[in-house]
From TrEMBL:
<keyword id="KW-0997">Cell inner membrane</keyword>
<feature type="transmembrane region" description="Helical">
    <location>
        <begin position="113"/>
        <end position="130"/>
    </location>
</feature>
<keyword id="KW-0472">Membrane</keyword>
<dbReference type="InterPro" id="IPR039653">
    <property type="entry name" value="Prenyltransferase"/>
</dbReference>
<feature type="transmembrane region" description="Helical">
    <location>
        <begin position="205"/>
        <end position="227"/>
    </location>
</feature>
<comment type="similarity">
    <text>Belongs to the UbiA prenyltransferase family.</text>
</comment>
<feature type="transmembrane region" description="Helical">
    <location>
        <begin position="137"/>
        <end position="157"/>
    </location>
</feature>
<dbReference type="InterPro" id="IPR000537">
    <property type="entry name" value="UbiA_prenyltransferase"/>
</dbReference>
<dbReference type="Pfam" id="PF01040">
    <property type="entry name" value="UbiA"/>
</dbReference>
<dbReference type="GO" id="GO:0006744">
    <property type="term" value="P:ubiquinone biosynthetic process"/>
</dbReference>
<feature type="transmembrane region" description="Helical">
    <location>
        <begin position="233"/>
        <end position="249"/>
    </location>
</feature>
<feature type="transmembrane region" description="Helical">
    <location>
        <begin position="269"/>
        <end position="288"/>
    </location>
</feature>
<protein>
    <recommendedName>
        <fullName>4-hydroxybenzoate polyprenyltransferase</fullName>
        <ecNumber>2.5.1.39</ecNumber>
    </recommendedName>
</protein>
<feature type="transmembrane region" description="Helical">
    <location>
        <begin position="12"/>
        <end position="34"/>
    </location>
</feature>
<keyword id="KW-0808">Transferase</keyword>
<keyword id="KW-1003">Cell membrane</keyword>
<keyword id="KW-0812">Transmembrane</keyword>
Length: 289
C-alpha cells in the first residue's frame, strides 16, 4: 500500500513536471523580498509557496486532461502518463480540483486581494489549455499565466498594486513565451496536420526563432531596466550578464531533430537562468541593502 502510494505521488509529480516550478519560483521569491523591502514573514512565505505550487500543479494537470487526445496522437508525447493509462482521467481531475481548492484557501490566508483575485487566476491558468486551438499567441498567454507568480507574490506581501511586480511579470511572460516557442518547433508538422496553432506552425521554423530571440531581447532589456527602477547594485548586473550568455547559448544549440538538445535549450538552461538571477538578486540585496 505504501509503495503504491509513493509510486502514485511520483507519477503525479512527473505528470505536472514538478521540477519546472523553478521557472516561476525564483521570480516569486524576488518579488516577495522586494515587496517586503527585506525578508517577508514566515507565514507569508509559506502560504505564498503553497498557492504557487498548488496553482501550477492544478493548471499543468488540467492541461494534460485537455490535451489527452493530442498527446496520444503525437509520437513525441504518446509515452506520457495519461496516454499510457498510468494515470486515469478521473484521478487527474480530482488532483486538479484539490490543487485549485488548496490555491484558493492559501490565497484567503494571505489577504483579501489575493482571495478576491484567486478565481480570476484559476480561470486564466485553466483557459490556457485551449488557446492552441485558436491562436498562435498561446505562448504569450502561457507566459502571462506564469507571470502571475511574481505579481501574486507582491500582492501577498502588500495587498495592493504596484509598478515593479508588473515589470517582473512582463519579464517572466516574455521569457516563458520565448522558450515555449523554441520547444514548439519540434511539433510544426504535427500542429499543422491537427489544426493546432503555434508561432512555429504559422510562421515557420526560422521566423519562429527570430520571434523568440526578439522576446528574449526585450526580456533582457527589462531586466536591465530594473537596475535603475530598483536602484540595484553591480552583483545584480553580473547575474543578468550570466543569464544573457545562457540565453545566447540556448538559441545557438537549437536542433528540433535532437530531443535531448531541445530539452536542454527549452528547460535545463532556463532553470539555471532563473536560479542565477535569483542568487545574484538576493546577494545584491544582502550586500547593498
Amino acid at each position: 500500500m505504501v509503495i503504491r502510494a509513493v509510486n502514485k505521488i511520483r507519477l503525479f509529480g512527473e505528470l505536472v513536471m514538478f521540477s519546472h516550478t523553478l521557472f516561476s519560483l525564483p521570480f516569486a521569491i524576488i518579488s516577495l523580498v522586494w515587496a517586503s523591502n527585506g525578508w517577508p514573514t514566515l507565514d507569508v512565505v509559506i502560504w505564498s509557496l503553497i498557492a504557487l505550487v498548488a496553482a501550477r500543479n492544478g493548471a499543468n494537470a488540467f492541461n494534460r486532461v485537455a490535451d489527452l487526445k493530442f498527446d496520444a496522437l503525437n509520437p513525441r508525447t504518446a509515452e506520457r502518463h495519461m496516454p499510457k493509462k498510468q494515470l486515469l482521467t478521473k484521478e487527474v481531475v480530482v488532483f486538479v480540483i484539490i490543487n485549485y481548492a488548496l490555491f484558493v484557501f492559501a490565497a484567503a490566508m494571505l489577504n483579501p486581494l489575493c482571495f478576491a483575485l484567486s478565481p480570476v487566476a484559476i480561470a486564466l491558468i485553466t483557459a490556457y489549455s485551449y488557446t492552441k486551438r485558436f491562436t498562435w499567441l498561446c505562448h504569450l498567454f502561457l507566459g502571462f499565466t506564469i507571470a502571475s507568480a511574481p505579481i501574486g507574490a507582491w500582492f501577498a506581501v502588500t495587498g495592493h498594486f504596484a509598478f515593479t511586480p508588473f515589470v517582473l511579470g512582463t519579464i517572466v511572460m516574455l521569457w516563458i513565451a520565448g522558450f515555449d516557442i523554441i520547444y514548439a518547433t519540434q511539433d510544426i508538422e504535427f500542429d499543422r496536420k491537427n489544426g493546432l496553432w503555434s508561432v512555429p506552425s504559422i510562421f515557420g521554423f526560422e521566423d519562429a526563432l527570430f520571434i523568440a530571440r526578439g522576446l528574449h531581447l526585450i526580456m533582457v532589456m527589462l531586466l536591465v531596466s530594473l537596475y535603475w527602477i530598483r536602484d540595484l547594485g553591480w552583483i545584480y548586473l553580473i547575474g543578468i550578464g550570466i543569464a544573457t550568455v545562457l540565453l545566447l547559448t540556448e538559441h545557438r544549440i537549437i536542433k528540433p531533430s535532437n530531443r535531448h538538445l531541445m530539452k536542454v535549450a527549452s528547460y535545463k538552461l532556463n532553470q539555471v537562468i532563473s536560479m542565477v538571477i535569483l542568487f545574484c538578486t538576493l546577494l545584491d540585496f544582502i550586500v547593498f541593502k
